[in-house]
Amino acid sequence: MTTPDRLTGPQIAFLLLLAFDTVLLGVLELFFLPLRLGVLPLPVTVLVGAVTTPWLVSATAKLVRPSLSWVPLVVWVLVVFGFGMLGPGGDLVLIQDWRALLLLGASALPGAMVLGGGLGRAAGRKPGRG
């Protein structure tokens, strides 16, 4: 069974919804990254990103198409870097310490690993592949 070349209406709606969710999650993860409990840094958004980014990639592969599972990861990276560096009023929202690196690594790395699995499955389904 081959996938059609064009996306259906529900597939486009799911892709747009997942991309919008990715934008919201990326912005919220940036805003709550400097959260502290007294003097102790409490980067709970790192955990949120570590769970939601791979989930969005796999949801896109299941609901839309495995070959488009890169969309949430790319949107998340663009939001985090774009909004983090050029935040509201020109402020730097992406804090410059270990929490920013932890957010990038804990969210983008698992998302990329899920992406690699989804694209590998999509490549394996093409006609003529072993």
Structural features, described:
The protein is mainly alpha-helical and 130 residues long. It contains four helices and two strands, in the order H-E-E-H-H-H. The chain has helices at residues 9-31, 44-63, 70-85, 98-124, and strands spanning 36-37, 40-41. A two-stranded antiparallel sheet has the order 1-2. A hairpin with a 2-residue loop joins strand 1 and strand 2. Helix 2 (44-63) runs antiparallel to helix 3 (70-85). The model has no long low-confidence stretch (mean pLDDT 86).
Q: What's a concise summary of this model?
A:
With 130 residues, the protein is mainly alpha-helical. The protein has helices at residues 9-31, 44-63, 70-85, 98-124; strands at residues 36-37, 40-41.
Secondary structure blueprint with pairings:
Blueprint lengths: L8 H23 L4 E2 L2 E2 L2 H20 L6 H16 L12 H27 L6
Antiparallel strand pairs: 1-2
Helix pairs in contact: 1-2, 1-3, 2-3, 2-4, 3-4
What key attributes describe this structure?
mainly alpha, 2 strands, two-stranded antiparallel sheet
Overall morphology:
elongated
Determine the strand fraction and express it as a percent band: under 5%
DSSP, total strands? 2
What oligomeric arrangement do these chains adopt?
A: single chain
Look at the helices and sheets and give the structural class: mainly alpha
